[in-house]
Design brief:
It contains 5 helices and no strands. The chain is mainly α. This is MARVEL domain-containing protein.
Length: 189
Amino acid sequence: MPVPQYGALGHLFTAARAVQMVCLIAIIGMASNFIAEIVAVQQAPHSVLIGTLTVTCIAALYIIINYILYFDNQLSFLLSTGVDSLLMIALIVIAVKTGMPISYLHCNQLSSTGSTSDFVESVKDNMKATNYWVWIGASKASCYEMKSIWGLSIGLCILFFVTAVASVCMWRRQKTGGAPAAPYKDIEG
């Protein structure tokens, strides 16, 4: 099966998709853990966590389908650019909504013990408030976990920007019928 020939852009696209998938799987795991612990104490998970899980699951499915189409030379690069841009915007919203309260937490100052579910139970009245950060600091581990979700969301924003730009460049190359440039050869004589 022939691999698409887009030179460095194709390699960049492939590498960025691989890193995106790793980040998305990590975010899905961490957000699911938070939601499971909140549900275990019979509370409603915050909408930011639900939104994060929803967007990352959709993005993971999109990447799988998108890369299969790319590998089979069936990918519409303009459509890919549009969806990558939309996912980047959604991840910017997630990063901002998550980062507003998280950026003020100092994880190293929190207790090493404790569980998120116990802490959620003790502050269940605060769960309805918009400042959901009150339960995130249950322990160092949960604080670092939420900060990881925030950091990976920011990283994904950059990666989706990179793949959107790469898709536009590959679309232009495909539209003009240009193949990747031949390697530079020194002309002697």
